[in-house]
Write a structure and sequence with these properties.
129 residues; mainly alpha; Helicase, Ruva Protein, domain 3; 2 domains; two-stranded antiparallel ribbon; 2 strands; flat
Length: 129
């Protein structure tokens, strides 16, 4: 199982899909990396030679922010927004959507599965009279 940027890449998948397991690398960035490395995208991750894996590691570590470094940068950006007291920072503090989405409905992922309407609670079992 190849290990790139601290992540175990699945062997049974094509390398174009397998590289997306690294945080910060999506499909379009994977295509750019593979073109730069000269590796065929349909090749399975288990079929890669050690030179190809080393080339991928070198390209990813040298040119892109991934995994811990990227997560750290995002956290510091959000912390800066909170400290300055911007609108987006306040939304992050309150746990609400920060990019202008509506909040009357459709904010389950940000707020958690909070249901505040009257009819959505669990109904009590009927008691016999």
């Amino acid at each position: 199982m190849p290990r790139i940027a601290g992540v175990n890449i699945p062997e049974n998948k094509q390398i174009e899909i397998a590289l997306t397991y690294i945080y910060g690398i999506g499909r379009s960035l994977t295509r750019k990396i593979l073109i730069t490395a000269g590796i065929e995208p349909t090749k399975k991750a288990s079929e890669l030679t050690s030179q190809e894996v080393a080339k991928l590691k070198d390209i990813i570590e040298k040119d892109y922010k991934v995994e811990g470094e990227l997560r750290r940068e995002i956290m510091t950006n959000i912390k800066r927004l909170k400290d300055v007291g911007t609108w987006r920072g306040i939304r992050h503090i309150k746990g609400l959507p920060a990019r202008g989405q509506r909040t009357r409905t459709n904010t389950r992922t940000v707020r958690g599965n909070v249901r505040k309407t009257v009819g959505s609670g669990r109904k009590l079992a009927a008691t016999p009279t």
